Amino acid sequence: MENVVELINVSKKFKGFSIKNIDLHVKQGFVTGFIGANGAGKSTTIKMMMNLLRPDAGEVKLFGLDYQTNEKDIKERIGFVYDSNVFFEGLNLKDIKRIVAPAYRRWDDTLFHQYVEKFELPLNKSIKTFSKGMQMKASLAIALSHHAELIIMDEPTAGLDPIFRRELLGLLQELMLDGTRTIFFSTHITTDLDRIADYIAFIQRGELVFSKSIHDVTEDYALVKGRIDLLDRDTEKAFVHVHRAPTGFEALTDNTTEVKEIFGDTVVMERASLEDIMYYFKGGIHHV
């Protein structure tokens, strides 16, 4: 099984917003970062992956199975880590374990206690006393304790302090070492993904702009800087979007080879970060 998640031509319409014809494949054994501005459609897409929302059109498959006939089997194999507390605030971790454990055939008590210890989580304190970072760790401990093969994280680092964010990313890297897990990680904080992602899927205004390996993103996209007089109707076609300033232009390209052919040494090309890519796509309409 190469793809753990397959969204095939999936659409979902709401008043004033829609997800349009998304084709997204999440590869087994890798970290896929799902990027886009707030309101771009990340959470809606995740809800369809989790069967919390049904698509109006298209097909959603996890582990090669569909939800219609295999919902329980699929959910056994998924761990979901929210960006906020989803447990009853008055409960402690021991109570939550007692409620959650029977729902999973592969629940592993020993593993649960190992993660509780590793994450330094108190078993007897109510969840409402936990910091946001601790709540995140509690969600992760529960997901890992039933041997989830796919861990879906919706904006997990939003609102965390920089030290804990770095700690969480280190933890996720550790989890990936044995090669059996897949992580799907949605975020608008793109710097997190520069450190851990193998693949990037980018959604904007309900449409998937691209889904490719981080290596290909680095190879294909670049920031180009040069003199204004180099721009005309033809040369601008090499760019996703151009930003003009009195001192010259800065633009994003998704075709570095074409830029080299057109401009030669008259421009400067630099690596585009994921943040640069999101910024320039928001500024203009993609010409392809």
From TrEMBL:
Domain ABC transporter residues, every copy: 5-230
Pfam annotation, one family: ABC_tran
InterPro entries per record: AAA+_ATPase, ABC_transporter-like_ATP-bd, ABC_transporter-like_CS, ABC_Transporter_VariousFunc, P-loop_NTPase
Domain of life: Bacteria
Recorded GO MF terms: ATP binding; ATP hydrolysis activity
Gene3D superfamilies: P-loop containing nucleotide triphosphate hydrolases (3.40.50.300)
Transmembrane regions: none
Entry-linked SUPFAM superfamilies: P-loop containing nucleoside triphosphate hydrolases
Sorted UniProt keywords: ATP-binding, Nucleotide-binding, Transport
Residues making up the signal peptide according to the UniProt record: none
Protein name per Swiss-Prot or TrEMBL: ABC transporter ATP-binding protein
Gene source species: Oceanobacillus halophilus
